[in-house]
Amino acid sequence: MTLKLTLLATASGVLIASNVGATELKMQTFLGANASTTKAFEAMAARLKDETSGEVAITVLPGGAVVGAGETIDAIQNGLLDGQYTAPSYFAGKDAALGVLGDTLAAYPDSATRDRWFTEGGGLELARALYAKYDMHLVCPVYWPPEQIPSKVEIGSVADLDGIKMRAPGGLASDLLSRAGAALVTMGVGESVTAMETGVLDATDLANVALNVALGMHNQAKYSVLARHSMAVTEMSVSMDKWTALSSENQQKFEAACNAMSAELQTTLSDEDAAAEATATDDLGVTFVAFGDEDASKFRAMTNEVWADWGGKSADAQAVVDSHKAFMATIGLD
């Protein structure tokens, strides 16, 4: 009996000791529990826990589990959350610089080119300095696919947007679309599906093809328009206290896991969009339209107008604008 008690006490001591250095993080994502992004985050969290022998333990919470998408920074500062996987554009009303960081509109031809700004153009360092002002650390940007506009009417050019009744969520993308003449309406995602059915809306600015199809947008909208009007950034970030509590080795493992998840999502989300496009074309009769080079140039010029206005809102916002423009010049997009 004495030996058994001794062994139990020893085993308990080992378990307690193994958890002493553990850092637990409650992190909320921006989409629901069944979204591919949420599932990828859960898989990343499990791998990271294994790779750090339990020292980094992330609890992944789906969008809205604790607070709304636009409230997660406040929740992190108040201790309700420890981190987030989200889009900076949700905080455009809080900080113009986060709005500019969160959506590069038509500045770049695709997300992969834009994401080079983070790795080659000093964007990651600039973004981390901005997040540090909120006592947060940006771990890494995460791939998000090109967004498309489900529409009941054909939109083949910037000029075709004039007078189109469109749902838009606010921020820089809404600013760009309004400059093109679209008649914007602010409403929730669920409401916009009904509004498309009743004729209140002609089109909606929402998400990528797979999400648009899954949400039923193309039950009424027989066009999907790649206007490159919005090129959202998503990211993973944590409170600075939690980040500094990690060892240097675990910080490196966290960042590596985040970047690996981003690379995996580029494949997963691209495959899902391709499959959704095939389904929409074959089963729903949807026609896919992409703006040509001339209209891409027009939208890029309008993006510069939007940047001029938003950059004027704060020094931080202007710094993000200037950094993008400098990088674009080096790759021939000026």
From TrEMBL:
User: Is Transferase given among the entry's keywords?
Assistant: no
Q: Does the keyword Nucleotide-binding apply?
A: no
Coarse class of the protein's main subcellular location: periplasm
Please give the superkingdom of this protein's source.
Bacteria
Q: Which GO terms describe its cellular component?
A: periplasmic space
| Compartments, record wording | Periplasm
What keywords would UniProt list here? Periplasm, Signal
Q: Which Pfam families match?
A: DctP
Q: Which residues form the signal peptide?
A: 1-22
Any one of the GO BP annotations? transmembrane transport
Gene3D superfamilies (UniProt xref): Bacterial extracellular solute-binding protein, family 7
Under what name is this protein listed? Answer: TRAP-type C4-dicarboxylate transport system, substrate-binding protein
Question: Which species does the entry assign this protein to?
Answer: Litoreibacter roseus
